[in-house]
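Kindly go through one protein, given below as sequence and tokens. The question is how this chain folds according to its tokens.

***
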Amino acid sequence: MAENKTSLKGRTVYIPRMSNEGARTMAAALNAIGIDAEPVPESDHSTLALGKKYSSGDECHPQTVTLGGFLKLLEKPGFDPKKTAFLMPHAGGPCRFGQYSVYIQKTFSALGYPDILVFSPRGEDSYDQFGDEGKGFARIAWRAVVASDIIRKLLLKTRPYEITPGSTDAVHRECLDLICKALAAKCTSHKEHMKSIQSALLTVRDRYRQVPCRYHKSRPLIGVVGEIYCRLDNFANEEIIRVIESQGGEAWLADVSEWIWYTNFRQQKTMRDDGKRFSKKMLQSKVKNFIQRKDEHAMLHIFEQDFRGYEEPAHAIDALKRSLPYLPHYGALGEMTLSSGKAIYLYDKGADGIIDVSPFTCMNGIVCEAIYPKISREHDNIPMKVFYFDGTRSDWDRDIGIFIELARNYQQKKAKHRVYPNYFLTKQEKSATLAHA
């Protein structure tokens, strides 16, 4: 029998750190179906140097960082190319992301490592490439995405208010370990697996509630949208979230789930446009959506009180319909419609400013930058700004500081006011809330 060159059996799968939480939870999801996996080591300036060494300079910042992270592993003692695989999902469309896997494989071959597998699974093949147990992976992977979004949101809404610096990060590391352990558990059924995850999430919720904090309403809430890799990778965006916090703000970072819901929406729209509204494929898509929604609710309802005022859009169209006057989703595709629509959604939720994090030369960022002034004018002049990243500077304190001051000024006169979790409220406000309920 011929060798299956795409088999992951006997290989360690390395996952790019699009976020620390996302890479960790996705590795745990692969562990759950019997595949050895771990995140690519954290990036540093040598990662960027390696990526640039084997790039032409025309690639976007995320590709350079991703390639550099993979290349660093080649220097690892005992590295065996035949026992290594790099997870690099494939996508179509105009974004350069669709060429990442091709370029990375070509680079490895040029360096004399043709045996390294650059694994590029596609959702449309039901993840058959993951092997006999791969049919269950899509559901476990979705739970990993939701779990990573939850714990990241907990981190960002808690850390700005901590009394002891570093206490939230310590709890975050502990809680991420708990979630990964639950995700990696080899359970006999999806129901049993969900119970294990819910148990871990209850512990996570309680641990975060115990972090000593001093909550107050004076911190501006800054919505962070933009290109998905750059906004989530702390190295690629030069720790912009921590800079926002150090300058007196709180960040609401767009999550990964929104992209999944968007791709589901696009899939069904394409089928309707192709005359397949009543097809087997449409039925499968609707069933998938139903199961994903059910799992998401089972995990999120645990945090109903904690995420009061931080609710994400219930459906992809909730954000997309807001972008219609500026970038209609039926004509402008991808992240630009999500970023513009989510920016307006965050305005409606009472955010005090919007930052778009994009790689230098990113088409999505450039298009959004052209329409943000109009969106701002038509939404109470809420501050909006695109910050571009290419790894060449790290002095963001001044620029972010100026933006936070603009957000503070807007905060004093804005028409849309935030809904706060109960722990933000004074005793009088809590009593009024209970009386109204």
